Amino acid sequence: MKIAVLSNINIDPIVRKLSKVQNIFQNQGYGNIFESLYNKQSALHHFQPNVIFFLIDLENLITVETEENTNPFDVINNWFQKIEAIMTEDTVYVISNGICSSDYLLGIEDSIEIAEIESEWNHRLNSFSKENNNVYQFDIRTLCNRLGKEQFFSTKSWYLGKIKHSNIGQQYIADNIQLWLKAYSNKNKKVLILDLDNTLWGGVVGEEGALGVKISDSGMGMIFQEAQKKFSKIKDTGVVLCIASKNNLEDAKEVFDKNPNMILKWDDFVLKKINWELKSQNINEIANELNVGLDSIVFIDDNPVEREMVKENLPDVIVPEFPTKIDAYEKFIEEVYINYFWKLNLTSEDKKKTEIYLQNVARNSLKQTLSFEDYLKSLECQVGLIEDPKDHIERINQLINKTNQFNLTTIRYSEQEIKEMLDDDTYRFYLFNCKDKFGDNGIISLVITKTENGQAYIIMFTMSCRVMGRLIENYILDYVENDMKKFGYKEINAKYVYTQKSKPVETLYENLGYEILTANETLKEYRLNLDTKSKRTFYVNGCE
User: Fold this and answer.
1) 463 Cβ partners below 8 Å, 6+ apart?
2) Which InterPro entries does the UniProt record give (predicted)?
C-alpha cells in the first residue's frame, strides 16, 4: 500500500518516522497542498498513493487564508470544495478533525471564537465523510486530548522550523497513522483471553470467596468494575472473549453467579479454561477450538511469571505488559483495544460474534455424540446466496483480508479495488450466508470468478473458519460451477497458492475432482470439465 501524508505545516519528522515502515510519498516542502493535487505531472500524481492523509492545522489555515472581510467559515467551505474537486474513486482520503493549539486567533473578528471554528470544521468533515464512501476521519483531536495541548504541541519547534507538534506529539501521530492503516487493512486481532484473579476482579477467589473479591462501584473495587465495562464494550465490537485461569472451576463460576457487582456474565466468554494446567496449553486449546491462529490472540494476565511462560511457549500470542500501578488499568485496556482490536467500521457479523461462537460450542458438543454424517444431517444447515453483494462491501473486505485458513489464493484487495471489481462485468461475486438449527452464522463465504477470452476462472474462494468441517465448501463450489455452466462455460480454471496457514485446504480442488495442470512448491493450477464433473457430497439445503 502506498500512502501520502500532506499538510499545510511542516510534518517532515512524521513522514520520516513513517518512511521506516511504510511506502510513503516524500513531499518536497509543505503548505501548497492543492498544487500537487491539481498538477497531473506532479511527483505526487506519479507516485499514485492508495491512501492520502491530510493533517490540516486549522489555526494556520484560517490565519493564512482569511483575508480582510473574509469569514473563516468561508475558508473552511472553500477547502472542502477544493478537495471534492480533485477526488478520485480509486484513492482513499483521510482528513484530520479540527484542533487549534491556541485559545484565540489574532486577526479574526472577536465575535467568532475558536471553538466555533473547530466546530464548523468538524461538522463539515462529518458531513463530507458521510457523503463520500472513500473519505475517513483521522481523530487528531482525541490524540491531543490524551496528551494535553502542552505536551502535544511545541511553540519552540514552531518558531524554529514551522513544526507545530512536539517530539512526543509527532510520534503519537505517526503511531496512530500506523494503527489506522492496520485497521483499514483488517489486520487486527480476533480473540482476547483474560485471567481472572487480579485481572477481572481484585484478589484471589480461592482465598476470599465469591463475595470477598474486590469489585464494586466504589473504592479499589471500582477499578475492576470499570475494567469489566471496558472489556464488555470490546466484546460488543466483535472481539471474542475467553478465560484462561488457574483456579477451581466452581469457585470462579460462583463469582459470576453470586456477586451482584459483576458486569461481565458467564456467557460473555465463549470458552472458559479454568483449571490447573499450563496457561499456554489452555490458550493453545482455545485457538484450536475456535479454529483461529495463535497470532489472532491477545492474552492479559497480571502475573509476570505467567506472562513470560506464555511468551516463551507461544511466541505468536500477543502478551501486553500489565501496568505496575492498578490505577493505570483502565488506560491500559484502552491501549490494548486501540493497538490490537480497533476497527474503522463494524459489520452485523461483528456485533453478534460472541453469539455465533457460542453456537459453535453447542455444535461441537453435539458432534461428540453422533457419527459425522448424522451430525451434519442433524444441523439442518441452510446456505443462501446474497442477492446484491454491493450492500455488503465491509463484510467482503473482511473475508478477503482477514481469512487465512480457508483461503485458496490469499490475494488481498483494498476496499476500493473491491468496488471496482463489483462494477466490472467480467467479475462475479458469489456471497453466501449460512444458518442451522443452532442459529445464524451470518455471511460466511465468498467466491469471485473472472471471465476473459472465453475462459472462466475462480480467482478467490474464502470461507469463515467457524463453518469449516461441515462440507459447506462442497455445496458452494458446486453452486458456482453449475452457475458458470448456465452461462455457457464448458470448464472452469482455479488455483491454490501455498501459505502455511492455508494448508488445511491445499488439496481441496483435487479432492473435488479438479485436474492438476501444473504444480510446484508454491502454486497449483487446476481445470474442471463442467460436463463430466462428479457428484458432490454435502448436507445442505441450498439456494437453487
Assistant:
1) 403, 406, 444, 445, 446, 472, 473, 476
2) FkbH_domain, HAD-like_sf, HAD_sf, HAD_SF_ppase_IIIC, SGNH_hydro_sf
Pairwise CA distance, residues 454 & 447, whole Å: 19
Note whether 284 and 253 are same-domain residues: yes
Establish if 474 belongs to a structural domain: yes
488: helix, coil or strand? Answer: coil
Which three cell numbers, joined as nine digits, stand for 354? 460472541
CATH number of domain containing 233: 3.40.50.1000
Report whether 444 contacts 386 (CB < 8 A): no
Per-residue buried b or exposed e for 467-500, using 16+ beta carbons within 10 Å of the residue's own CB? bbbbbbbbbbbbbbbeebbeeebebbbbbbeeee
Question: Is there a domain that residue 363 lies in?
Answer: no
Displacement of CA 45 from its chain's centroid (Å): 29
Do 377 and 336 lie in one domain? The reply is no
Domain that holds residue 492: 369-541
Residues 178 and 197 in one domain: no
Burial class (CB in 10 A: 0-12, 13-18, 19+), 76: buried
162 with 201, same domain: the answer is no
459 and 415 part of one domain: yes
- Residues 175 and 255 both lie in one domain: no
Q: How many helices (H) and strands (E) does the chain have?
A: 23, 17
Whether the CB-CB separation of 242 and 192 falls below 8 Å is answered with yes
Of 282, 322, 278, which is closest to residue 302 (Cα–Cα)?
Answer: 322
- What is the CA 10 to chain-centroid distance, rounded? 31
Q: Mean pLDDT for each 10-residue chunk of the chain (544 residues)?
A: 90 91 80 82 89 91 70 89 89 90 55 78 93 90 89 89 91 94 87 97 94 94 96 95 96 97 96 96 95 94 96 97 95 94 84 88 89 93 93 91 91 88 95 93 95 95 92 96 95 94 92 95 95 91 65
Q: Do 153 and 198 lie in a common domain?
A: no
User: What is the DSSP secondary structure assignment for residue 187, as one 8-state letter?
Assistant: -
**Nearest to 462, CA basis, from 516, 388, 512, 404:** 404
pLDDT, tens digit (0-9, with 9 covering 90-100), for 274-328: 999 999 999 999 999 998 899 999 999 999 999 999 999 999 999 999 999 999 9
Q: Same domain, yes or no, for 404 and 491?
A: yes
Cell of 506: 491445499
The structural domain count of the chain equals 3
Beta strands 297-300; 191-194: pairing state = parallel
The amino acid sitting at 416 is Q
CATH of the domain at 91: 3.40.50.1110
Buried b (16+ CB within 10 A) or exposed e, 8-41: bbbbbbbbebbeeebebbebeebeebeebbeeee
Taking the C-alpha atoms of residue 134 and residue 130, their distance in angstroms, rounded to an integer, is: 9
354 is a domain residue: no
Locate cell 476497527: which residue? 343
Q: Give the CATH number for residue 440.
A: 3.40.630.30
Angle at 30 between CA 29 and CA 35, to 5 degrees: 95
